[in-house]
Write the structure tokens for this entry.
Amino acid sequence: MKVAVIGSGPAGVYASLELAKNGVNKVILVEKEERLGGTCVLYGCIPSKAMLHPVHLLTELEKLGKKVSFNLDELRKFGQEALTRLSKGVEYMLEDNGIEVVRGVASLRSGLLNVNNETLQVDYIVLATGTFRERLNGIIYSEDLPYLNRDFQSVILVGGDVGGIEFGWMLRKLGKEVFLIDKQSTLLPYLDREVSNNITNYFAKIGIKLYLNRSVKEMREKEVVLDNGEKLTADAVYMTFGRKPSIQGFEEINHNPYVIVDEYLRTSVNNIFAAGDIIGTHTAHEAMYAGKIAAINILGGKKVFNKEGIPKVVYTHPTIAYVGNMDGRCIKLSLAELGRAITEKETDGFLKVCVKDDKIVGAQAFMKDAEEVISLISFLIRFNVRINEIKDYVAPHPSYIEVITELLSRLR
């Protein structure tokens, strides 16, 4: 069997590895970029988390009365070091598993795969081309931040999505004047209203100037004109939203606008599967999982892509994390009641959990270590663990995990 994987982001890499480790004779990964890793490694989750990490540390030290400072150039250096190492790591990992990497542009014409204008005969294709950005002249985008060799004292962020929230928080903690514009009335409005309101109020409290319920009429290098005619000026304007699926060259596959797949990630073309942002997953860990599912099904499996209980995280401080649906009976616990939070002066924040039919169906946290807390809850959701079984779990003390056991102990 010969399989071509198009794209070296998380979905493409994990599909390639799963195929190679399970006996596929030839796996070819096609990548148009010079470096491997896709948006996550080169522009998104990896450099951004490397830049955010020092800001988390200085925020924690501030609570203890200590002052530490970083400048934007230092953070960019951390981001560049991380993405370079991870990209090289992807290259070595593929090589170690016998996966051939071909640099070039792939396309599908009359059902045949073309790479660099030559037909490549394969049995199956995994489409993992991700998303792209339509760029406007003079406008900086959130993925540019790890690369730009410039500083600024004020910035306008257009878009209150995950990227806007993370970078807005980071830049504000660096002492920048931050304007954040979003057309919704609160930040992350798809969350529980109480959670969304708390996040919005926190951002206003730390000094981010929020322009909510506003859309942008005009955008220039250092100026934004809002729908009501108001003008905002700053040293830089960043756009944080607007990525589109990279369907170019594969328009023969049904899409609207993302590639349409069945529960096994098979597309409208029988021997083509798709995974990652191209099908609208939007997180690297979902893309990794989808890549593995696509590979398993190419190998003859019948494994369903299960979206239930996959956690999402926004890496601010406090961290925002959520999973599932906020249905049924919902209860909340403030971190001011948690021993570990008191010892670390991290009492801002809370966990909110919703229970239905003796199971947790959803949870949202705005707190220190929310990522770990929500990850454990996602495990409980995905494996259908009942409340009475969870109550028999013993959490370490003092820990942030205790917020789960303490909260559930109050259920009657």
